[in-house]
Amino acid sequence: MTEPVRVQVDLAERAYPIVVGTGWLDRLLDHVTLPEGVARVLLVTQQAVAESGHLEPVTAALEAADVEVHRYDVPDGEAAKSAGLLRELWEACAEVPLSRRDLVVALGGGVVGDLAGFAAATWNRGVGVLQIPTTLLAQVDAAVGGKTGINLPQGKNLVGAFHQPVAVACDVATLATLPHRIRVEGLGEVVKYGLIADPGLLDLLEGHADEVLAGDAALLQQIVYRSVAVKARVVAGDEREGGERAYLNLGHTYGHAVESLTGYDEVLHGEAVAIGTVVALRLGVRLGRTPPELADRGEALLERLGLPTRGPALDRDEVWATMGRDKKADADGVRFVVMDGPAQPAVVVPERADVDAVLDDLAALAAPARGVEDAGPGH
Ligand SMILES: NC(=O)c1ccc[n+]([C@@H]2O[C@H](COP(=O)([O-])OP(=O)(O)OC[C@H]3O[C@@H](n4cnc5c(N)ncnc54)[C@H](O)[C@@H]3O)[C@@H](O)[C@H]2O)c1
Ligand SMILES: [Zn+2]
Description:
By secondary structure, the protein is α/β, with parallel strands linked by helices. It has two domains: about 5-175, 3-Layer(aba) Sandwich (Rossmann fold), CATH 3.40.50.1970; about 180-365, Dehydroquinate synthase-like, alpha domain (Up-down Bundle). Helix content is about 45%, strand content about 15%. It contains 15 helices and eleven strands. Strand 10 (about 335-340) and strand 11 (about 345-350) form a beta hairpin. Mean pLDDT is about 95; it is low at about 375-379. The chain binds nicotinamide-adenine-dinucleotide and zinc ion. Nicotinamide-adenine-dinucleotide binds near residues 145, 178 and 182. The site of zinc ion has 5 residues, from helix 12.
């Protein structure tokens, strides 16, 4: 058994480690130091995660250190990131009762991480949260960086806080029990990291696509490690998204519009990011910034990994209205991340005509064999 590896997120007094390993949750506290004085934890999870066998080793490791574990299950899906559930979590904290020195543990995908993280950010004006992400998307993205929050009927992630965790514990062995489509979805974000910062990650995915898709743990550990290394570096340089952190939004401008206009259940987040990444790559080519071979490489890799590269047909005016309402849009217009070369992202505010031309081209092209509908079994 190889030892877990760690990446430090360098944020002065809020610095924390991300630990990445395979099959190590039963030894959680060998590699993660709990803050001084933790006597109780509220462990927030989901039934599917617990039933897949990932709760037991975590609970056992905490109890072996004399920490009292109080479990709280939240329902599945985006609907769990609601004000109603947040209130239930606050009340669960009150019942424990969770003191300022105690801890919330988030064991699950991005839904659990965002909701439990926000509960931790607000309970008692803020208690620590230990993130133990169990989906690929959450390991490489959601659990790292400190963004937490809930949805409103008016939109996703509209209420939230920056609340950095005390540590992030990624066990790629947990990914073995994920439905195939959810594991593949996370690769959309991994390709993004490869494009914006780590061409070697693209090489790795291209050279070993089949093994990655089959869930090879050693490869997944490398992929998660390299992805969080990129995110950690970017977050440390720009904690609150003033500058460099914007590059993490490659593929997200159009991707968010796809998710929003299809109601968040038809196209998964990572799938929408893949679709948006193709738009961004082609936009960069059209603007004379992205080398065409880089755009082709990115698109071919996404396809190879079984991710959708063409979005559903959408009303163009609605797309623009949605992109304009995005939190990241500003008075100048809609921002896109484009690639000036490998590992050279840039933010641009393109003319609508250029984006529309790219979308027209994509709509005119025959959809490749693996579309959204047949990307694998649903969840
Ligand atoms: N905070 C951030 O920076 C950030 C970044 C990206 C995404 N997000 C958020 O993350 C959420 C999506 O997260 P997600 O893709 O992880 O989805 P998810 O949390 O809904 O998990 C997907 C499904 O997989 C199940 N599951 C999780 N781990 C499992 C395992 N190991 N074995 C079997 N089943 C398992 C869950 O119960 C759920 O049904 C969205 O709400 C999104 O807004 C947040
Ligand atoms: Zn994303």
